[in-house]
Amino acid sequence: MTQVTVEALIAGACAGSLVSFPTDTVPALAILPAKAPLIFAAKQRSQDKPLILMAARESDIWPYVQGSNIEYQIWQELASKFWPGALTLVLPASAQVPKVMNPTDPTTIGVRIPASAIAQNILAQTGPLATTSANFSGQSPLQTMAEIDAQFPEVLTLKTAQIPQEISGVGVPSTVAKWTGNSWQILRQGAITLSL
């Protein structure tokens, strides 16, 4: 059993341990971006499935992406409508993004701000983390900390008593939209319905 307090989970994440916490969609498996290979190994995930960079606020995200002033305006316009929330934007990656987050295409990075007080609290103190759903690759996302603790005994998970009852909609992954250079391409319709 590796269920811990929020404080211990934050300390563990800052020290480079794999952690798991609830978000507004499915629970996240998370780690410092430079340690991303540990997530791929734990999930038995193929290298062509990139991780998402999750942060507490927009200002934490923008240093990890790069584009023209006009592109930033377009991205921020869409972000301001749906963040915090279940929208992942796939944008051109800046040099700050470790290539291990997206080994087969290090030129892009998926970014998201979750609408979850507990996730935002953790991310505000750890800084942006590399995240993905908590499950073995190809299987359904696990929904509870107890399930995650059982499947990933090496991962620090939150004590259930520390998790407030949060917003509904949990269990549906985020919608993913990729910037193609001049328009948006929807890669996955998830919790938010986008018509772009």
Write a short abstract of this structure:
The protein is α/β, with parallel strands linked by helices and 196 residues long. The chain is 26% helix and 21% strand. The chain has one domain (3-188): Alpha-Beta Complex (DHBP synthase).
Protein architecture, described:
The protein is an alpha/beta fold. It has six helices and ten strands; from the N terminus they run βαββαβααββαβαβββ. The protein has a single domain, classed as DHBP synthase, CATH 3.90.870.10. The protein has helices at 6-14, 37-43, 58-61, 69-82, 117-126, 145-151; strands at 3-4, 19-21, 28-31, 52-54, 87-92, 108-112, 129-133, 156-158, 175-179, 184-188. Strands 1-8-2-3-7-4-6-5-9-10 form a ten-stranded mixed beta sheet, sandwiched between helices. α1 runs parallel beside α5.
| Unreliable spans | none
Tell me what the CATH architecture is. Answer: Alpha-Beta Complex
Strand content: 15-25%
Task: Supply the helix-strand structural class.
Answer: alpha/beta
N to C succession of SSEs: EHEEHEHHEEHEHEEE
In round numbers, the mean pLDDT is: 91
CATH topology (fold) name: DHBP synthase
Instruction: State the name of the first-level CATH class.
Output: Alpha Beta
Biggest beta sheet summary: 10 strands, mixed
Tally of DSSP β-strands: 10
- The neighbouring-strand order within the major sheet is 1-8-2-3-7-4-6-5-9-10
Shape: globular
Radius of gyration: 16 Å
Oligomeric state of the chains in view: single chain
Distance between the termini: 44 Å
Fourth-tier CATH superfamily name: DHBP synthase
The total number of structural domains is 1
Number of helices: 6
Specify the helix fraction band.
25-40%
